Amino acid sequence: MFLVGFSIFKVYDKLLFLIRRINIYMLLKEKLKNIIPRENSGSISSNRFDYQKDWAICKLIELSKQKDFLLAFEFYEDIIVFDSSENPKTIDFFQIKTKGKGKHSISTLLKKNKGSSILGKLFNNKINFEKETNSLSIISNCDYKIELKNKNFVGIKICCNEVDKNEAKRIAEDLSSELSITWLNEYFDILFFEKSNLTIEHHSDLTQQKLNKFIENKFIDLKYNPSLAYTTIFDEVKRKNNFEKSLNTFDELVKYKSFSKSDFDKIINVVASEPYRLTKLKSEILNRLDSEKVSIVFRRSFQKNWSSAEIEYLKPNNLLFQKLVKLINRTIELKESLLDDNLLNSMNKIYIEVLNNKFVQEQLIFDDDFIKILILKNLCDGE
């Protein structure tokens, strides 16, 4: 009888323990429903910065129709565009102001934060570059709540000379006071409020669609990788945008923080045509390796590392990678006597030579298998 009672108590304790665990779990699930997380400012900020980069890509597509230009990042303004990459005469200034909800109004654009308003900061460029300023634009994802002379106006770009007299008077008075200037009516002709067709939620998808259409119109019937093309260009825009060292000359601006027409044309040509060429070369190399009966392990390694190498080849300013490729090419030229009809044997011989280089021994980015794939690629490329 005692043993039976003891067993019942043990079962009861286990059931009680399980019930408590279930209650705790259910309470946590209920808390997750009822407790609202604090605002994730990090993710929001990151998305807004990416929006600016995507807008820049769309602007580059638009500018590509011109004979020359230079689009610079985070230099005086979020985005600025010179009319020439060599001898510029004018500048267009663009300030990107995204908004989660609501509309921009003259009041919000003139509201001071730490002594300066959005419009005040933008218009300060006109003071610094009085003769060179061609236009000053606020770019946003949202609509503008602005009274216009023409009540029936429909468009995504508003020039300040189109706002009604009361709005215009407030802009003139507030900016005159904030910047200590005498306002001229001609200033209204260069100030613009523009709504971008990129949304906060889908700006990357919309930009990729625009880029795809641009490439497909430029290179009819050419096979390319749309996702890889967008990623390559976005990463290059990000690299230039995030360059932090101070710039002392216009040439440094051109080199480190800008896209000229020739820069953009070059990267478009690379992302549009190079992937197809590399895919074709990959197939040829695999056929040769299969004929030499390479192991399945090596074949899998080749497939994996080739994809990584393809991405590196598309990056226009990957200096470490380019140095490695030049070293491999130079080694192949100098050690041509080591090559034979067997591709795998030739790769291994060149690999041993490359591995003796101090730069290869000290670099920590590219592993042995990756280097071997680069050797295979350069052995077969251009044969």
Distance between the termini: 91 Å
Structural Rg: 30 Å
How many distinct beta strands? 9
Number of domain units: 3
SS summary, helix count: 14
Mean pLDDT: 86
How big a fraction of the residues is strand?
5-15%
Order of helices and strands: HHEEEEHHEEEHEHHHEHHHHHH
Rough shape? globular
Stretches where pLDDT is under 50 for at least 5 consecutive residues are 1-6, 37-42
In the sheet with the most strands, the strands line up as: 7-8-5-3-2-1-9
Share in helix: 55-70%
Q: Main β-sheet: number of strands, strand sense, barrel status?
A: 7 strands, mixed
SS content category = alpha/beta
Show the helix and strand layout.
Elements: H1 2-34, H2 41-63, E1 70-75, E2 77-82, E3 91-96, E4 104-105, H3 106-110, H4 118-128, E5 133-140, E6 144-145, E7 157-159, H5 165-179, E8 191-195, H6 203-218, H7 226-241, H8 250-256, E9 258-260, H9 261-291, H10 296-314, H11 319-334, H12 343-355, H13 358-362, H14 368-380
Parallel strand pairs: 3-5, 4-6, 5-8
Antiparallel strand pairs: 1-2, 1-9, 2-3, 7-8
Protein model, in words:
By secondary structure, the protein is an alpha/beta fold. The chain folds into three domains: 36 residues; 207 residues, no CATH class; 89 residues, no CATH class. The protein has 14 helices and nine strands. The strands form two sheets. Strands 7-8-5-3-2-1-9 form a seven-stranded mixed β-sheet, sandwiched between helices. A two-stranded parallel ribbon has the order 4-6. A hairpin with a 1-residue loop joins strand 1 and strand 2. Helix 6 packs across helix 7, helix 7 crosses helix 9 and helix 9 packs antiparallel against helix 10.
